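Give me C-alpha coordinates for this 556-residue protein.
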Amino acid sequence: MKETDTTTSVFALGGLGEVGKNMYVIEHGKEIIIIDAGVMFPEDDLLGIDYVIQDVTYLKQNEDKIKALIITHGHEDHIGGITFLLQNVNIPKIYASQIASDLIRKKLDDKNMKYDNLEVYNKDTVIKFKNLSVEFITTTHSIPDSFAIVVHTPNGDIIHTGDFKFDLTPIGPMADIHKMASLGSHGVKLLLSESTNALSPGFSASEAIVDEALGDIFANSSTNRIILATFASNIYRIKHIVETCRENNRKIITFGRSMESAKEIAIKNNLIKDPTIFIDANQAKDLKKNEICILCTGSQGEPLAALSRIANGTHKQVQLMPDDIIVFSSNPIPGNSQSINRIINKLYLKGVKVYTNSDVSDIHTSGHAKAEELKWMLRLIKPEYLMPIHGEYHMLKAHKDLAVSCDVPENNIFICKNGDVVLMDKNGCRRGRRITAGDVYVDGSRIGDIGSVVIKDRKLMSKDGVLIAILNIDVNKQTLLIKPNITTRGFVLVNENASLIREIENKVSEIVNKSLSGKYNVIDIKNQVILELNMFINERTGRRPMILPVIMEIKK
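Here you go.
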Protein backbone atom coordinates (compact mmCIF):
# COMPACT_ATOMS: atom_id res chain seq x y z
CA MET A 1 0.00 0.00 0.00
CA LYS A 2 1.47 3.33 -1.05
CA GLU A 3 1.11 6.36 1.14
CA THR A 4 -1.09 9.01 -0.51
CA ASP A 5 -3.29 11.92 0.56
CA THR A 6 -6.14 9.44 0.97
CA THR A 7 -4.32 7.14 3.40
CA THR A 8 -4.12 7.62 7.16
CA SER A 9 -0.75 7.14 8.87
CA VAL A 10 -0.44 6.06 12.50
CA PHE A 11 2.88 5.87 14.34
CA ALA A 12 4.59 6.40 17.69
CA LEU A 13 7.50 8.71 18.45
CA GLY A 14 7.67 7.26 21.97
CA GLY A 15 5.98 4.62 24.09
CA LEU A 16 6.79 1.44 22.14
CA GLY A 17 9.41 -0.90 23.59
CA GLU A 18 9.50 1.24 26.73
CA VAL A 19 7.34 2.42 29.61
CA GLY A 20 7.07 6.19 29.34
CA LYS A 21 7.86 8.87 26.74
CA ASN A 22 4.40 8.42 25.21
CA MET A 23 3.71 10.23 21.95
CA TYR A 24 1.48 8.96 19.15
CA VAL A 25 0.76 10.62 15.81
CA ILE A 26 -2.21 10.32 13.44
CA GLU A 27 -1.72 11.93 10.03
CA HIS A 28 -4.16 12.25 7.14
CA GLY A 29 -3.36 14.42 4.14
CA LYS A 30 -2.28 17.79 5.47
CA GLU A 31 -3.49 17.22 9.03
CA ILE A 32 -1.53 15.85 11.99
CA ILE A 33 -2.92 15.14 15.45
CA ILE A 34 -0.45 14.36 18.24
CA ILE A 35 -1.62 12.33 21.25
CA ASP A 36 0.39 12.91 24.45
CA ALA A 37 3.92 14.23 24.97
CA GLY A 38 5.47 12.45 27.93
CA VAL A 39 8.92 11.96 29.39
CA MET A 40 10.73 8.81 30.43
CA PHE A 41 12.87 8.79 33.55
CA PRO A 42 16.42 7.57 32.86
CA GLU A 43 17.83 4.21 33.88
CA ASP A 44 20.87 4.22 36.18
CA ASP A 45 23.27 3.88 33.24
CA LEU A 46 22.26 7.27 31.81
CA LEU A 47 24.53 9.20 34.15
CA GLY A 48 23.56 12.82 34.79
CA ILE A 49 20.50 12.66 32.52
CA ASP A 50 17.30 14.14 33.97
CA TYR A 51 14.77 13.05 31.33
CA VAL A 52 14.51 11.15 28.07
CA ILE A 53 12.19 12.69 25.47
CA GLN A 54 11.21 12.01 21.87
CA ASP A 55 13.11 12.89 18.71
CA VAL A 56 10.56 15.22 17.08
CA THR A 57 12.44 15.73 13.79
CA TYR A 58 9.43 14.52 11.79
CA LEU A 59 7.08 16.95 13.54
CA LYS A 60 9.49 19.82 12.95
CA GLN A 61 9.70 18.93 9.25
CA ASN A 62 5.88 18.80 9.01
CA GLU A 63 5.07 21.65 11.38
CA ASP A 64 2.57 23.21 8.99
CA LYS A 65 0.37 20.08 9.17
CA ILE A 66 0.03 19.98 12.96
CA LYS A 67 -3.48 20.82 14.13
CA ALA A 68 -3.34 19.96 17.82
CA LEU A 69 -1.73 18.11 20.69
CA ILE A 70 -4.36 16.14 22.61
CA ILE A 71 -3.64 14.87 26.13
CA THR A 72 -5.23 11.69 27.54
CA HIS A 73 -4.47 12.47 31.22
CA GLY A 74 -2.08 14.30 33.52
CA HIS A 75 0.70 11.82 34.35
CA GLU A 76 4.32 12.72 33.65
CA ASP A 77 4.81 10.00 31.05
CA HIS A 78 2.03 11.72 29.08
CA ILE A 79 2.52 15.46 29.77
CA GLY A 80 6.10 15.78 31.06
CA GLY A 81 7.56 16.50 27.62
CA ILE A 82 5.20 19.33 26.66
CA THR A 83 7.51 22.19 27.67
CA PHE A 84 10.37 20.61 25.68
CA LEU A 85 8.11 20.02 22.66
CA LEU A 86 6.97 23.66 22.65
CA GLN A 87 10.60 24.80 22.55
CA ASN A 88 11.15 22.89 19.30
CA VAL A 89 7.83 22.69 17.44
CA ASN A 90 4.96 25.11 16.89
CA ILE A 91 1.84 23.52 18.41
CA PRO A 92 -1.21 25.60 17.42
CA LYS A 93 -3.44 24.26 20.22
CA ILE A 94 -3.28 21.85 23.17
CA TYR A 95 -6.45 20.11 24.33
CA ALA A 96 -6.41 18.63 27.84
CA SER A 97 -8.91 17.65 30.52
CA GLN A 98 -9.27 19.90 33.56
CA ILE A 99 -6.78 18.22 35.91
CA ALA A 100 -4.25 17.68 33.11
CA SER A 101 -4.69 21.30 32.05
CA ASP A 102 -3.95 22.54 35.58
CA LEU A 103 -0.82 20.38 35.76
CA ILE A 104 0.36 21.58 32.35
CA ARG A 105 -0.25 25.22 33.27
CA LYS A 106 1.84 24.70 36.42
CA LYS A 107 4.71 23.31 34.32
CA LEU A 108 4.53 26.25 31.93
CA ASP A 109 4.52 28.73 34.83
CA ASP A 110 7.50 27.01 36.48
CA LYS A 111 9.50 27.50 33.27
CA ASN A 112 8.17 31.03 32.65
CA MET A 113 6.71 29.88 29.33
CA LYS A 114 3.77 31.76 27.86
CA TYR A 115 1.26 29.64 25.93
CA ASP A 116 -2.28 30.92 25.34
CA ASN A 117 -3.81 28.07 23.35
CA LEU A 118 -4.44 25.50 26.09
CA GLU A 119 -8.09 24.47 25.93
CA VAL A 120 -9.99 22.23 28.37
CA TYR A 121 -12.15 19.43 26.98
CA ASN A 122 -14.71 17.20 28.70
CA LYS A 123 -16.56 13.99 27.89
CA ASP A 124 -18.99 15.80 25.57
CA THR A 125 -16.41 17.79 23.58
CA VAL A 126 -16.11 17.21 19.84
CA ILE A 127 -13.17 18.73 17.95
CA LYS A 128 -13.52 19.00 14.16
CA PHE A 129 -10.84 19.57 11.54
CA LYS A 130 -11.19 19.30 7.75
CA ASN A 131 -10.62 15.54 7.48
CA LEU A 132 -10.34 14.42 11.10
CA SER A 133 -12.58 14.82 14.12
CA VAL A 134 -12.04 13.87 17.75
CA GLU A 135 -14.28 12.89 20.65
CA PHE A 136 -13.62 11.49 24.12
CA ILE A 137 -14.55 8.52 26.31
CA THR A 138 -14.38 8.70 30.12
CA THR A 139 -12.02 6.06 31.53
CA THR A 140 -10.91 5.03 35.02
CA HIS A 141 -7.28 5.58 36.00
CA SER A 142 -5.36 6.65 39.11
CA ILE A 143 -5.73 10.34 38.25
CA PRO A 144 -9.03 12.18 37.66
CA ASP A 145 -10.14 13.33 34.21
CA SER A 146 -8.62 10.44 32.26
CA PHE A 147 -9.96 9.82 28.78
CA ALA A 148 -9.68 7.56 25.76
CA ILE A 149 -9.51 9.43 22.46
CA VAL A 150 -11.60 8.60 19.39
CA VAL A 151 -10.27 9.91 16.08
CA HIS A 152 -12.72 9.71 13.18
CA THR A 153 -10.88 9.53 9.84
CA PRO A 154 -12.10 9.09 6.24
CA ASN A 155 -10.72 5.52 6.45
CA GLY A 156 -12.43 4.49 9.69
CA ASP A 157 -12.33 5.12 13.41
CA ILE A 158 -9.19 4.93 15.56
CA ILE A 159 -9.46 4.62 19.34
CA HIS A 160 -6.52 5.36 21.64
CA THR A 161 -7.36 4.02 25.12
CA GLY A 162 -4.94 6.16 27.11
CA ASP A 163 -4.06 4.55 30.45
CA PHE A 164 -7.09 2.77 31.89
CA LYS A 165 -8.49 0.07 34.14
CA PHE A 166 -11.99 -1.23 34.74
CA ASP A 167 -13.02 -0.51 38.34
CA LEU A 168 -16.63 -1.22 39.27
CA THR A 169 -16.27 0.63 42.59
CA PRO A 170 -14.01 3.55 41.64
CA ILE A 171 -13.25 6.62 43.72
CA GLY A 172 -14.21 8.82 40.74
CA PRO A 173 -16.61 8.30 37.83
CA MET A 174 -17.12 4.95 36.15
CA ALA A 175 -15.59 4.31 32.75
CA ASP A 176 -18.16 4.96 30.01
CA ILE A 177 -18.56 1.32 29.02
CA HIS A 178 -21.76 2.08 27.10
CA LYS A 179 -20.01 4.55 24.80
CA MET A 180 -17.19 2.06 24.22
CA ALA A 181 -19.70 -0.64 23.31
CA SER A 182 -21.64 1.74 21.05
CA LEU A 183 -18.51 2.70 19.12
CA GLY A 184 -17.54 -0.95 18.91
CA SER A 185 -20.94 -1.92 17.49
CA HIS A 186 -20.59 0.68 14.72
CA GLY A 187 -17.13 -0.61 13.79
CA VAL A 188 -13.64 0.47 14.88
CA LYS A 189 -10.86 0.06 12.33
CA LEU A 190 -7.80 0.38 14.62
CA LEU A 191 -7.39 0.19 18.40
CA LEU A 192 -4.29 1.57 20.13
CA SER A 193 -4.45 0.02 23.59
CA GLU A 194 -2.03 0.28 26.52
CA SER A 195 -0.04 -2.83 27.46
CA THR A 196 1.66 -2.02 30.77
CA ASN A 197 0.04 -4.86 32.75
CA ALA A 198 -0.55 -7.31 29.88
CA LEU A 199 1.56 -9.94 31.67
CA SER A 200 -0.43 -9.65 34.93
CA PRO A 201 -3.33 -12.10 35.11
CA GLY A 202 -6.81 -11.29 36.34
CA PHE A 203 -8.25 -7.90 37.23
CA SER A 204 -6.56 -5.03 39.07
CA ALA A 205 -7.84 -4.40 42.58
CA SER A 206 -10.37 -1.66 43.10
CA GLU A 207 -9.42 1.61 44.74
CA ALA A 208 -12.16 0.78 47.23
CA ILE A 209 -10.08 -2.20 48.44
CA VAL A 210 -7.10 0.13 48.97
CA ASP A 211 -9.32 2.55 50.86
CA GLU A 212 -10.40 -0.27 53.17
CA ALA A 213 -6.79 -1.48 53.74
CA LEU A 214 -5.57 2.02 54.58
CA GLY A 215 -8.53 2.46 56.91
CA ASP A 216 -7.49 -0.68 58.81
CA ILE A 217 -3.91 0.62 59.21
CA PHE A 218 -5.18 3.95 60.59
CA ALA A 219 -7.62 2.19 62.94
CA ASN A 220 -4.86 -0.10 64.29
CA SER A 221 -2.42 2.82 64.78
CA SER A 222 -4.45 4.82 67.27
CA THR A 223 -1.39 5.86 69.30
CA ASN A 224 1.12 6.34 66.48
CA ARG A 225 2.14 9.02 64.05
CA ILE A 226 1.64 7.88 60.44
CA ILE A 227 4.00 8.85 57.60
CA LEU A 228 2.51 7.92 54.23
CA ALA A 229 4.34 8.04 50.90
CA THR A 230 2.58 7.79 47.54
CA PHE A 231 2.74 9.17 44.01
CA ALA A 232 1.82 12.86 44.05
CA SER A 233 0.11 12.34 40.69
CA ASN A 234 -2.25 9.74 42.19
CA ILE A 235 -4.80 12.37 43.13
CA TYR A 236 -7.55 9.84 43.82
CA ARG A 237 -5.29 8.16 46.39
CA ILE A 238 -4.64 11.54 48.02
CA LYS A 239 -8.39 12.18 48.07
CA HIS A 240 -9.19 9.05 50.04
CA ILE A 241 -6.16 9.50 52.33
CA VAL A 242 -7.71 12.85 53.22
CA GLU A 243 -11.08 11.19 53.87
CA THR A 244 -9.45 8.45 55.99
CA CYS A 245 -7.59 11.08 58.05
CA ARG A 246 -10.81 13.00 58.60
CA GLU A 247 -12.56 9.83 59.84
CA ASN A 248 -9.66 9.19 62.24
CA ASN A 249 -9.34 12.79 63.48
CA ARG A 250 -5.90 13.36 62.00
CA LYS A 251 -4.49 16.51 60.45
CA ILE A 252 -2.24 16.25 57.40
CA ILE A 253 1.17 17.82 56.79
CA THR A 254 2.41 17.58 53.20
CA PHE A 255 6.07 17.52 52.17
CA GLY A 256 7.44 17.57 48.64
CA ARG A 257 6.93 20.15 45.91
CA SER A 258 4.93 17.83 43.65
CA MET A 259 2.73 16.79 46.58
CA GLU A 260 2.00 20.44 47.36
CA SER A 261 1.03 21.03 43.71
CA ALA A 262 -1.22 17.97 43.65
CA LYS A 263 -2.92 19.11 46.86
CA GLU A 264 -3.58 22.59 45.44
CA ILE A 265 -5.02 21.19 42.20
CA ALA A 266 -7.24 18.72 44.11
CA ILE A 267 -8.59 21.56 46.29
CA LYS A 268 -9.10 23.83 43.26
CA ASN A 269 -11.17 21.15 41.52
CA ASN A 270 -13.23 20.38 44.63
CA LEU A 271 -11.87 16.84 44.95
CA ILE A 272 -10.84 17.81 48.48
CA LYS A 273 -13.77 19.71 49.92
CA ASP A 274 -12.36 20.84 53.28
CA PRO A 275 -8.76 22.14 53.00
CA THR A 276 -8.63 22.94 56.73
CA ILE A 277 -7.48 19.36 57.32
CA PHE A 278 -4.05 20.46 56.05
CA ILE A 279 -1.72 22.18 58.49
CA ASP A 280 1.89 23.33 58.34
CA ALA A 281 4.70 21.71 60.31
CA ASN A 282 4.72 24.40 63.02
CA GLN A 283 1.07 23.75 63.91
CA ALA A 284 1.85 20.06 64.50
CA LYS A 285 3.73 20.95 67.70
CA ASP A 286 0.39 21.46 69.44
CA LEU A 287 -0.98 18.05 68.40
CA LYS A 288 -0.57 14.52 69.74
CA LYS A 289 1.21 11.90 67.61
CA ASN A 290 -2.06 10.10 66.84
CA GLU A 291 -3.53 13.33 65.48
CA ILE A 292 -0.93 13.67 62.71
CA CYS A 293 -0.44 12.14 59.27
CA ILE A 294 2.57 13.18 57.20
CA LEU A 295 1.86 12.81 53.46
CA CYS A 296 5.04 12.95 51.41
CA THR A 297 6.84 12.13 48.19
CA GLY A 298 9.54 9.48 47.97
CA SER A 299 7.62 6.23 47.46
CA GLN A 300 10.15 5.30 44.73
CA GLY A 301 13.24 5.86 46.88
CA GLU A 302 14.22 9.10 45.12
CA PRO A 303 17.36 10.40 46.90
CA LEU A 304 16.15 13.98 47.33
CA ALA A 305 12.49 13.24 48.07
CA ALA A 306 11.01 13.91 51.50
CA LEU A 307 10.84 10.27 52.67
CA SER A 308 14.48 9.61 51.76
CA ARG A 309 15.57 12.63 53.78
CA ILE A 310 13.40 11.49 56.70
CA ALA A 311 14.96 8.01 56.56
CA ASN A 312 18.48 9.50 56.37
CA GLY A 313 17.83 11.82 59.31
CA THR A 314 18.52 14.92 57.17
CA HIS A 315 14.99 16.32 56.96
CA LYS A 316 14.88 19.75 58.62
CA GLN A 317 11.37 19.40 60.04
CA VAL A 318 10.71 15.67 60.58
CA GLN A 319 12.68 13.35 62.86
CA LEU A 320 11.65 9.70 63.08
CA MET A 321 10.23 8.36 66.33
CA PRO A 322 10.57 4.64 67.24
CA ASP A 323 6.80 4.07 67.20
CA ASP A 324 6.17 5.77 63.83
CA ILE A 325 4.18 3.89 61.19
CA ILE A 326 5.52 4.24 57.62
CA VAL A 327 3.20 3.33 54.72
CA PHE A 328 4.36 2.89 51.11
CA SER A 329 1.11 3.25 49.16
CA SER A 330 2.71 2.41 45.81
CA ASN A 331 4.39 -0.33 43.80
CA PRO A 332 7.98 -0.03 42.55
CA ILE A 333 8.40 1.34 39.05
CA PRO A 334 10.65 -1.06 37.10
CA GLY A 335 14.27 -0.26 37.98
CA ASN A 336 13.45 1.39 41.32
CA SER A 337 13.29 -1.69 43.57
CA GLN A 338 16.88 -1.36 44.79
CA SER A 339 16.43 2.30 45.78
CA ILE A 340 13.17 1.52 47.60
CA ASN A 341 14.67 -1.43 49.47
CA ARG A 342 17.57 0.77 50.57
CA ILE A 343 15.13 3.26 52.11
CA ILE A 344 13.04 0.50 53.72
CA ASN A 345 16.18 -0.98 55.34
CA LYS A 346 17.13 2.43 56.74
CA LEU A 347 13.64 2.83 58.17
CA TYR A 348 13.74 -0.60 59.82
CA LEU A 349 17.14 0.25 61.33
CA LYS A 350 15.46 3.24 62.99
CA GLY A 351 13.01 0.83 64.64
CA VAL A 352 9.83 1.99 62.90
CA LYS A 353 7.11 -0.25 61.46
CA VAL A 354 6.83 -0.27 57.67
CA TYR A 355 3.85 -1.29 55.53
CA THR A 356 4.36 -2.05 51.84
CA ASN A 357 1.92 -3.37 49.26
CA SER A 358 1.67 -7.18 49.39
CA ASP A 359 -0.75 -10.08 49.14
CA VAL A 360 -1.76 -9.52 52.75
CA SER A 361 -1.90 -5.72 52.62
CA ASP A 362 -3.64 -4.10 49.63
CA ILE A 363 -2.41 -0.53 50.19
CA HIS A 364 -1.83 0.12 46.49
CA THR A 365 -3.44 -0.89 43.25
CA SER A 366 -2.29 -0.26 39.72
CA GLY A 367 -4.11 2.19 37.51
CA HIS A 368 -3.32 0.01 34.49
CA ALA A 369 -5.50 -2.74 33.07
CA LYS A 370 -4.44 -6.32 33.73
CA ALA A 371 -4.97 -9.18 31.28
CA GLU A 372 -8.71 -9.70 31.83
CA GLU A 373 -9.40 -5.97 31.59
CA LEU A 374 -7.47 -5.75 28.32
CA LYS A 375 -9.63 -8.60 27.02
CA TRP A 376 -12.72 -6.72 28.18
CA MET A 377 -11.62 -3.65 26.21
CA LEU A 378 -11.03 -5.80 23.13
CA ARG A 379 -14.49 -7.35 23.42
CA LEU A 380 -16.17 -3.95 23.87
CA ILE A 381 -14.37 -2.19 21.02
CA LYS A 382 -14.18 -5.22 18.68
CA PRO A 383 -11.41 -3.64 16.58
CA GLU A 384 -10.60 -4.89 13.10
CA TYR A 385 -6.90 -4.14 13.78
CA LEU A 386 -4.86 -3.70 16.96
CA MET A 387 -1.66 -1.82 17.67
CA PRO A 388 -0.54 -2.53 21.28
CA ILE A 389 1.10 0.58 22.78
CA HIS A 390 2.69 1.84 26.01
CA GLY A 391 4.92 -1.04 27.04
CA GLU A 392 8.16 -2.92 26.65
CA TYR A 393 8.26 -5.46 23.83
CA HIS A 394 7.38 -8.47 25.98
CA MET A 395 4.31 -6.53 27.19
CA LEU A 396 3.28 -5.69 23.62
CA LYS A 397 3.72 -9.36 22.63
CA ALA A 398 1.65 -10.53 25.63
CA HIS A 399 -1.08 -8.08 24.60
CA LYS A 400 -1.00 -9.54 21.09
CA ASP A 401 -1.55 -13.03 22.50
CA LEU A 402 -4.52 -11.77 24.53
CA ALA A 403 -6.00 -10.20 21.39
CA VAL A 404 -5.65 -13.42 19.42
CA SER A 405 -7.55 -15.21 22.19
CA CYS A 406 -10.27 -12.57 21.75
CA ASP A 407 -10.63 -13.38 18.03
CA VAL A 408 -8.51 -10.55 16.57
CA PRO A 409 -6.72 -12.16 13.58
CA GLU A 410 -2.99 -12.48 14.25
CA ASN A 411 -2.17 -10.84 10.91
CA ASN A 412 -4.22 -7.82 11.97
CA ILE A 413 -2.03 -7.05 15.01
CA PHE A 414 0.95 -4.74 14.63
CA ILE A 415 3.85 -5.03 17.10
CA CYS A 416 5.70 -1.86 16.18
CA LYS A 417 8.78 0.09 17.15
CA ASN A 418 8.89 3.85 17.57
CA GLY A 419 8.93 5.23 14.02
CA ASP A 420 7.14 2.29 12.36
CA VAL A 421 4.19 3.58 10.32
CA VAL A 422 0.88 1.74 10.04
CA LEU A 423 -1.05 2.81 6.93
CA MET A 424 -4.82 2.70 6.87
CA ASP A 425 -7.18 3.02 3.90
CA LYS A 426 -10.69 1.86 3.02
CA ASN A 427 -9.44 -1.70 2.48
CA GLY A 428 -7.60 -2.14 5.78
CA CYS A 429 -4.26 -1.54 7.51
CA ARG A 430 -0.72 -2.41 6.40
CA ARG A 431 2.81 -1.63 7.48
CA GLY A 432 4.36 1.39 5.79
CA ARG A 433 7.69 3.22 5.86
CA ARG A 434 9.79 4.15 8.87
CA ILE A 435 10.27 7.71 10.03
CA THR A 436 12.93 9.23 12.28
CA ALA A 437 12.41 8.29 15.94
CA GLY A 438 14.73 7.89 18.89
CA ASP A 439 15.79 9.17 22.28
CA VAL A 440 16.79 12.73 23.11
CA TYR A 441 18.50 13.33 26.45
CA VAL A 442 17.76 16.29 28.71
CA ASP A 443 20.58 17.31 31.06
CA GLY A 444 19.54 20.31 33.13
CA SER A 445 18.55 23.01 30.65
CA ARG A 446 20.42 21.37 27.78
CA ILE A 447 18.31 19.41 25.31
CA GLY A 448 19.67 17.07 22.68
CA ASP A 449 23.38 17.94 22.81
CA ILE A 450 24.12 15.04 25.17
CA GLY A 451 24.69 12.12 22.83
CA SER A 452 25.88 8.55 23.17
CA VAL A 453 29.54 9.63 23.09
CA VAL A 454 29.03 11.88 26.14
CA ILE A 455 27.17 9.11 27.98
CA LYS A 456 30.00 6.70 27.14
CA ASP A 457 32.55 9.18 28.53
CA ARG A 458 30.51 9.57 31.72
CA LYS A 459 30.35 5.80 32.18
CA LEU A 460 34.10 5.57 31.63
CA MET A 461 34.77 8.26 34.23
CA SER A 462 32.36 6.65 36.71
CA LYS A 463 34.08 3.29 36.29
CA ASP A 464 37.81 4.09 36.06
CA GLY A 465 38.02 7.81 36.85
CA VAL A 466 39.86 10.58 35.03
CA LEU A 467 43.54 11.51 34.79
CA ILE A 468 44.61 15.01 33.76
CA ALA A 469 48.15 15.66 32.52
CA ILE A 470 49.10 19.35 32.42
CA LEU A 471 52.04 19.99 30.06
CA ASN A 472 54.02 23.26 29.97
CA ILE A 473 55.67 23.52 26.55
CA ASP A 474 58.07 26.19 25.28
CA VAL A 475 56.68 26.75 21.77
CA ASN A 476 59.84 28.44 20.43
CA LYS A 477 62.28 25.80 21.69
CA GLN A 478 59.70 23.01 21.39
CA THR A 479 60.67 21.57 24.75
CA LEU A 480 58.88 20.45 27.89
CA LEU A 481 59.75 23.11 30.47
CA ILE A 482 58.98 21.18 33.66
CA LYS A 483 57.80 17.67 34.44
CA PRO A 484 54.10 17.04 33.75
CA ASN A 485 51.60 17.83 36.51
CA ILE A 486 49.40 14.73 37.01
CA THR A 487 45.99 15.11 38.67
CA THR A 488 43.46 12.30 39.11
CA ARG A 489 39.84 11.97 40.22
CA GLY A 490 38.26 8.58 40.84
CA PHE A 491 41.38 6.73 39.63
CA VAL A 492 43.81 6.37 42.56
CA LEU A 493 44.62 8.25 45.75
CA VAL A 494 47.68 10.33 44.84
CA ASN A 495 49.18 10.30 48.36
CA GLU A 496 49.02 6.51 48.58
CA ASN A 497 50.32 5.84 45.05
CA ALA A 498 53.29 8.21 44.78
CA SER A 499 55.46 5.71 42.91
CA LEU A 500 52.77 5.06 40.28
CA ILE A 501 52.25 8.80 39.78
CA ARG A 502 56.04 9.25 39.28
CA GLU A 503 56.02 6.45 36.70
CA ILE A 504 53.15 8.18 34.88
CA GLU A 505 54.98 11.53 34.99
CA ASN A 506 58.09 9.93 33.50
CA LYS A 507 56.07 8.13 30.84
CA VAL A 508 54.27 11.33 29.82
CA SER A 509 57.62 13.19 29.65
CA GLU A 510 59.00 10.45 27.43
CA ILE A 511 55.98 10.55 25.09
CA VAL A 512 55.98 14.35 24.82
CA ASN A 513 59.72 14.66 24.25
CA LYS A 514 59.53 12.04 21.51
CA SER A 515 56.61 13.87 19.89
CA LEU A 516 58.43 17.23 20.05
CA SER A 517 61.39 15.84 18.11
CA GLY A 518 59.30 16.07 14.95
CA LYS A 519 56.97 18.77 13.65
CA TYR A 520 55.12 20.56 16.50
CA ASN A 521 51.39 19.79 16.45
CA VAL A 522 49.18 20.14 19.55
CA ILE A 523 46.55 17.62 18.41
CA ASP A 524 49.16 14.99 17.51
CA ILE A 525 50.86 15.38 20.93
CA LYS A 526 47.51 14.98 22.79
CA ASN A 527 46.51 11.92 20.76
CA GLN A 528 49.89 10.28 21.30
CA VAL A 529 49.75 10.90 25.06
CA ILE A 530 46.23 9.38 25.25
CA LEU A 531 47.20 6.35 23.11
CA GLU A 532 50.48 5.40 24.81
CA LEU A 533 49.54 6.38 28.35
CA ASN A 534 46.31 4.40 28.12
CA MET A 535 48.24 1.21 27.32
CA PHE A 536 50.88 1.98 29.98
CA ILE A 537 48.29 2.51 32.77
CA ASN A 538 46.29 -0.54 31.73
CA GLU A 539 49.42 -2.71 31.96
CA ARG A 540 50.23 -1.33 35.43
CA THR A 541 46.73 -1.23 36.96
CA GLY A 542 44.30 -3.09 34.70
CA ARG A 543 42.20 0.09 34.49
CA ARG A 544 41.48 2.61 31.75
CA PRO A 545 40.82 6.08 33.19
CA MET A 546 39.78 8.88 30.86
CA ILE A 547 43.02 10.73 29.98
CA LEU A 548 42.85 14.48 29.38
CA PRO A 549 46.13 16.11 28.27
CA VAL A 550 46.13 19.90 28.80
CA ILE A 551 48.86 21.79 26.94
CA MET A 552 49.94 25.20 28.24
CA GLU A 553 51.83 26.91 25.40
CA ILE A 554 54.49 29.33 26.68
CA LYS A 555 56.13 31.76 24.27
CA LYS A 556 59.33 33.48 25.44
